[in-house]
């Protein structure tokens, strides 16, 4: 028997998953533009981000409708709240992808802006973590979400190494300052993508297990 809340809640989930697919696609496009020094492709990202913003507004409205008309409780309420929080993180991923695309446009104008291997690895790891976080929501799989939390350290380490390499290059050749600053900014944007992926994973765990794991490592010290 289908409950009254099931249909609007599932529709809300589908909107969030659609937003997740768009966030993944826009990030992939931004990284591809960066690696290929393709300014035209990078400029497409701004338009794609508008679609993510539009979905974010639709999800806000859908959440309010479910809360007002269905008055969900317990497990259903946690899922509604998780949908809203996940949408917020996905919207920010779109913004970060747009920032990467802006750097790609600047770097495309240079002849010496080949993407460093370390930065490419960081991009791959950040995108992988985002994919796994969205999968954990799609599958309602707390174990997958836990794995995302454990793997965030990999991205943090790669970010640190990418920034260290950029600083070392800058120290050897100050003429490369603009390029290396862009590489540092991209590294920070990609690390923030991974942070939002961990936020999504935390929200999935809260929705499924009613367990708040935000700041768990810090609070356990």
What does the model show?
With 221 residues, the protein is mainly α. It has helices at 6-36, 39-70, 74-108, 117-139, 142-172, 177-209, 216-219. The radius of gyration is 19 Å and the shape is elongated. α1 (6-36) runs antiparallel to α2. The model has no long low-confidence stretch (mean pLDDT 93). It has one domain (6-219): Methane Monooxygenase Hydroxylase, Chain G, domain 1, CATH 1.20.58.
What is this structure, in a nutshell?
With 221 residues, the protein is mainly alpha-helical. It contains 7 helices and no strands.
Task: Write the SSE topology.
Elements: H1 6-36, H2 39-70, H3 74-108, H4 117-139, H5 142-172, H6 177-209, H7 216-219
Helix pairs in contact: 1-2, 1-3, 1-4, 2-3, 3-6, 4-5, 4-6, 5-6
Q: Can you give keywords for this protein?
A:
221 residues; mainly alpha; 7 helices; 86% helix; 0% strand; elongated
Number of strands: 0
CATH topology: Methane Monooxygenase Hydroxylase, Chain G, domain 1
- What is the CATH architecture term? Up-down Bundle
Helix-strand category: mainly alpha
Helicity, as a percent range: over 70%
Q: What's the helix-strand series?
A: HHHHHHH
Please describe the biggest sheet, giving its number of strands, its sense, and whether it closes into a barrel. none
- Helix tally? 7
Q: In CATH, what is the homologous superfamily?
A: Phosphate transport system protein phou homolog 2, domain 2
> What are the low-pLDDT stretches, counting only 5+ consecutive residues below 50?
none
- Average residue pLDDT: 93
What's the alpha carbon Rg, rounded to whole Å? 19 Å
- 3D shape: elongated
